[in-house]
Amino acid sequence: MVALQKQSPVIESNAIEPHEKLEEEHCSKPSQQDWVLALRDVHRQPIYAGDRLYWMLQLRDYVYQNTLSNTELSERHFVTAKYPVSDYLLMLDLAERLCDWVMVDEISNTLLNLDADCLSNEQYSKIIVANAEACVQSGKSFQALQSVKCALLNQYQNAELLSCYRWVQYHAERANQSSIPWQDYCAAGLMLTPLESYHIDAYRWVYCKQSEGAASVADLCNLPNFSHDDDWLTWLQNCRHYHNHYLYAVIHQEWGFIGSVCLEVFNGIGFFYYWLGEDFQGYGFGPRAVAILLKLGDLHKGMTACYAKVYDNNLHSQKALEKIGFSALPIYLAAPYDNELLYYFGPDKTQRQWRDELLTLFTDMGSDFRLEVTRDYLLHHLI
């Protein structure tokens, strides 16, 4: 298995991207024949969350002309007709199952660039639909709309394409209604987009535990354990109705959906949390996403200061927050949240101001968080 090499707990400003940090001794790469046999085999079997990254990396090794270990994403080129159409279709099916929308986009474009007589009408429409969904998932709904429009010129009675066009048009209109120029909220290969219902499958993959013994995202972030798709969709709908509650997907230019960030802002004071899937932790993606979120809060939500909380044993997240300018507060949450630390980003304030601001913020958020009342606080502030 090709493995990602994690970086140290302290996040350096020159953090290396995952595809640049693959182990030097690349695990023996199967021959093309073995790869095709593996594709056919996995096509008939379930894929577990712990194996997803392996298959994502294998797809990149076999679709791109150069290896991941020594080539920048922007410098890669397709190998046109490197494989038979049937093999590309198997790879496309695998990428869709993995919700690896970056590779769905790459593989579908490779197929669409083949001569027209290489694809049947059924294959063509299937590839167009896959490409359109990949574009929408990557925040490029208007590009998807144009692609499906062009396909409909050739197959104007194709029910699958018509259905796809209506789906893409709906999401393009939703994107057009936003007052935020999302293209401005990209940095170092990451972008934020509103979390939408179509993210559900990618969310499921990344939200799952990737290895035994690791704490789940739900446990680390006090998020629900979704037992059914309807639970997640209901949760998303409820989040949208919360006052001043903003929920975003974190999209990486190569890996697609890698996590989520949330921001609540009341009277200029923000509170945020974020999570990343286990496969994408330790590369500096979290701080980059938070930096984009803080910029968004400042420019579009009127935010002047922001708070966050993290478990006292989560040293990695503590270092990450400190790296982007947050400071640990000398104020603590009361039980049952006394195993979490509070962090602050903004202008200097007194401890009394922090306490008053936090208590007001917790009330506005409808949270049951309470602050611990210490003897020193009573002596210095209430007497």
What would you say this structure looks like, in words?
- With 383 residues, the chain is α+β, with helices and mostly antiparallel strands.
- It folds into 2 domains: 160 residues, Serine Threonine Protein Phosphatase 5, Tetratricopeptide repeat (Alpha Horseshoe); 200 residues, 3-Layer(aba) Sandwich (Aminopeptidase), CATH 3.40.630.
- 45% of the residues lie in helices and 14% in strands.
- An 8-stranded mixed β-sheet has the order 1-2-3-4-5-6-8-7, sandwiched between helices.
- Strand 5, helix 11 and strand 6 form a beta-alpha-beta unit.
- Helix 5 runs parallel beside helix 7.
- The protein is elongated.
- The protein starts with 31 loop residues before the first helix and ends with a helix.
- The N terminus is likely disordered.
- It comes from Marinomonas arctica.
Query: Distance between the terminal alpha carbons, to the nearest Å?
Result: 64 Å
Placed side by side, the strands forming the largest sheet appear as 1-2-3-4-5-6-8-7
The CATH topology of the largest domain comes to Aminopeptidase
In sequence order, what are the helices and strands, one letter per element? HHHHHHHEEHHHEEEHEHEEHH
Contiguous uncertain segments of 5+ residues: 1-15, 21-26, 66-79
Counting DSSP E segments of at least 2 residues, the number of strands comes to: 8
Q: Whole-number average pLDDT? A: 84
Instruction: Decide which structural class fits the backbone.
Output: alpha+beta
Rough shape? elongated
How many domains would you count in the coordinates?
A: 2
Rg over CA atoms, rounded to whole Å, is: 23 Å
Number of helices: 14
Question: For the record, what is the CATH homologous superfamily label of the largest domain?
Answer: Gcn5-related N-acetyltransferase (GNAT)
**Percent in helix:** 40-55%
